[in-house]
Amino acid sequence: LVSTDNPAYIKTPKYTTESASATYLTLYAKATIDAVIYNCAAIAGENIASATVSDDSVIAGDSVTFTAQLNEGYLFDGWYTALTGGTKVSGDNPYTVIISSDTTLYARATKKLYTITLNQSNHGRATVSATTAYYDDQVTFTCYPDAGWQLLQWR
What digits encode the pLDDT tens for the residues 33-71? Predict the structure, then answer.
């Protein structure tokens, strides 16, 4: 860095007439703009493996992308303004937004809920302990075959 003044006055080296070689001095101007810089962060909530933002320092008006990686058995719920409570900003994952202030978003997930349907057999009956179950819950299926019949398989 030679100078940040505009205009810049730079004193050249003194040379004597005895010097046979010429020396050249090359300067480059580097311009900047007055810019407002905002900070961005992505926070992983419970059951989110990771949450990232494409850039953590952003010039006002530029966009960033928030991305969440979920743990197995979970569905993405959304990006929120707080870890609990707060306002839901988007349900998109990834989520791209134009930045106009410091922005921290929290990724949330919910456990997958399954609906269980049990079809009855022609030669007996079956029961199930629940009609809905969350991922990784235990559900019990029981078969009561008619006399002379036995359970071959569940499918």
Answer: 678 999 999 999 999 999 999 999 999 999 999 999 999
Give the integer Cα–Cα distance in Å for 60 and 73.
37
Inter-residue contact 17 to 27 (CB < 8 Å): no
User: 52 and 42 in contact (C-beta within 8 Å)?
Assistant: yes
Torsion of the alpha carbons at 135, 105, 86 and 60, rounded to the nearest 10:
-160
Q: Look up the pTM and report it.
A: 0.69
Q: Provide the CA 129 distance to its chain's centre, in angstroms.
A: 37
Bridge partners for 59 per DSSP? 37
Amino acid at 92: D
